[in-house]
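Example (one chain per record):
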Amino acid sequence: MTVRELIDSGLFGVINRGDDLDREITKPFCCDLLSIAMGRAPEGCAWVTVMGNMNTLAVAALADAACLVMAEGTALDETALKKAGDQGITVMKTELPVFEAAYLVRQRLP
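Predicted structure:
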């Protein structure tokens, strides 16, 4: 499944459409501790988190995540939203808990 297909599924709202919507999502990844995510987030993952700040975007870029899903109704602050646009990072949102959001992504992967 690509990032575009995840967006088009309507499962999540879209906060920012990134540059590489045709990128394949490899797997979901759940983590709210940035130091762990930095070392363990798999390349191409859909990272599901409640951390909505500039550091989250930096880690997403460093880990080469395909997209971010902000869970539990969290959102990016204004500065982070601008940075997501500048860096071309796709960010989605949901009211669902982290695990449930990740499970929905996993159900759509081959």
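Caption: The chain has one domain: 3-107.
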